[in-house]
Amino acid sequence: MGELVSIDKYALDNLPELTKLEATNNPKLSYIHRLAFRNIPTLESLMLNNNALNAMYQRTVDSLPNLREISLHSNPLRCDCVIHWMNPNKTNIRFMEPLSMFCAMPPEYRGQLVKEVLLQDSSEQCLPMISHEAFPNHLNLDIGMTVFLDCRAMAEPDPEIYWVTPLGNKITVETLSDKYRLSGEGTLAISTIQVEDSGRYTCVAQNTEGADTRVATLRVNGTLLDGTQLLKIYVKQADAHSILVSWKVNSNVMTSNLKWSSATMKIDNPHITYTARVP
C-alpha cells in the first residue's frame, strides 16, 4: 500500500457511526480537500497530528456537524487566511496540545504559536501554496507506462490548477487529448509514456492573489529530453557534395537555434519550416 499523501474529495463518505478518525504520523500527508468528508454526522474527534499538513479548510470542519476536537499539532502550518477560522474567537472547536502548534510559514511568523499569530493577522485572501510533500520532483519511468502526477494547492479564493508540458502546451481540465488528462483536483495523467514525453512538467496553481509553481522532471528509460532535443531534422535530398535537410520548429520556439559552419538557408515560413543545403 502506498503512502498517504492527500485526502481528496469525498474520500470518506457515508459513515454514520464513525465517532473518531485518526490519520497520524504520515510524513507525506500534506493536503485535505475542502469536501474530503461527507455524511459523517457523528464524528467528534479528528486526529491529524504529526503529518505534513500546511492547513485545513474551515469548510472541511463545517461538514462535520458534531466535531468537538482536532489534533493538528506537529504539522508545518501556514499561518495565513486559510486557517483564520482557527482563531479562538471564531470557533468552538478544541485544539489538542495548542502549545505544540507552530507556524512554519510565512517566514515572518515562522516559529511563533499559531494562536498568537491568528490574533494579529486578519487577511481574507492569500496566495496559493502547492503541497510539496505530495508533489513528485523526479521520476524514472519505463516506456509504455501511465503516470499520474499529483499537484494539490490551498488558497483563498480556491486556486485554478493547470499543467504546462515540456513543449509549452497548457493542460487544463477542459483539454481534450489522448495523451494527457487533468483531474479537477490537479492530478495530471500521462498515458503510454514514450521517450519524447520526458522532460520538465510544470504545475501552476493560480488565483487572484498570484500563483505558485512546481516542476516535475520525468526521465523515460533513463533519458531526459528538453524542447531543443525534440527537434527532428529530415534529409530531403542527398548529392555528391551536399545534402538538403529540413526541420520544423515547435510552436513555443520563436526562432531556430541550429548553426552551420557553411550553409545556404531558405526560410519557407519563419514559424513553421526551415530548409538548409549543407555542403
Question: How many domains make up the coordinates?
Answer: 3
The CATH architecture of the largest domain can be given as Alpha-Beta Horseshoe
Runs in which pLDDT lies below 50 for 5 or more consecutive residues are: 251-256, 261-268
Strand content range: 25-35%
CATH class of the largest domain: Alpha Beta
Largest pleated sheet: 5 strands, mixed
What topology, given as strand order, has the largest sheet? 12-20-19-15-16
Overall pLDDT level: 85
SSE-based structural type: mainly beta
Percent helix, as a range, is under 10%
How many E strands? 24
CATH superfamily of the largest domain: Ribonuclease Inhibitor
What keyword list fits this structure?
3 domains; signal; disulfide bond; Cys-rich_flank_reg_C; mainly beta; repeat; Immunoglobulin-like; Leucine-rich repeat, LRR (right-handed beta-alpha superhelix); single chain; Ig-like_dom
